[in-house]
Specification:
The structure is a homodimer.
Chain A: E1 13-22, H1 29-41, E2 46-53, E3 58-65, H2 68-76, H3 78-91, E4 92-109, E5 113-116
Antiparallel strand pairs in A: 1-3, 1-4, 2-3, 4-5
């Protein structure tokens, strides 16, 4: 799973904040996780994703979308739905999902100072 | 920094999504990070926080607040403002902040199945 910063357009847009606690072991998780990012990038309305996980297995992934409609379409994507089933069966102990509308954004870089989205 | 799941009320509420790339070394970061969570918990309108960082130094912290006013008040908190200065001077290579209004939320637990916020 990549950990680069997402390059996003100016708000408004939508964020799906997925926080999760993994079980022990990989069990096919890594490959599916990479595949889901690859598939999401092909979805209409996908804007970007940022993701990280600590050694304790607690992770946060935030996927950014143009609209609620784009989020719903991704939910219905067949391979993604199957991966969610595996997530509940095999990979996660607990997860929380919050869907939010991004209203403002800004960034900062050591080299270039502040930027505003 | 704790990595527990935040227990949140029903939406709507606000999320401040902070993604960051750390520089090498601790340089006082860990202690200040813990202190900021301790201080945030004392702020009016603070609802919870979830945070994690990978071995590559890329991290995501999501803080949840009752309102935009609560977020603005936290921005003006003196010790927090000083910590942000140190962040730019010493700790971060790059960061992005997105402020979003959470509209719906749900969770899942291995033991108990789905819950809805």
């Amino acid at each position: 799973m990549t950990t680069e910063f997402a390059k996003l357009p100016k708000p408004p847009y939508y964020a799906v904040i997925f926080s999760s606690q993994r079980r022990e072991g990989d069990d096919g998780y890594g490959a599916t996780s990479d595949r889901m990012v690859e598939l999401a990038r092909q979805q209409p309305g996908f804007l970007g994703v940022e993701s990280t996980r600590g050694d304790d297995g607690f992770g946060i992934t935030v996927a950014y979308w143009e609209s609620e409609e784009a989020i719903k379409a991704w939910r219905l994507q067949t391979e993604h739905a199957a991966a969610r089933e595996r997530g509940r069966a095999d990979w996660y102990r607990h997860f929380e999902i919050r869907v939010a509308r991004v209203e403002r954004a800004y960034g900062w870089d050591q080299a270039g100072g502040h930027t505003r989205g």
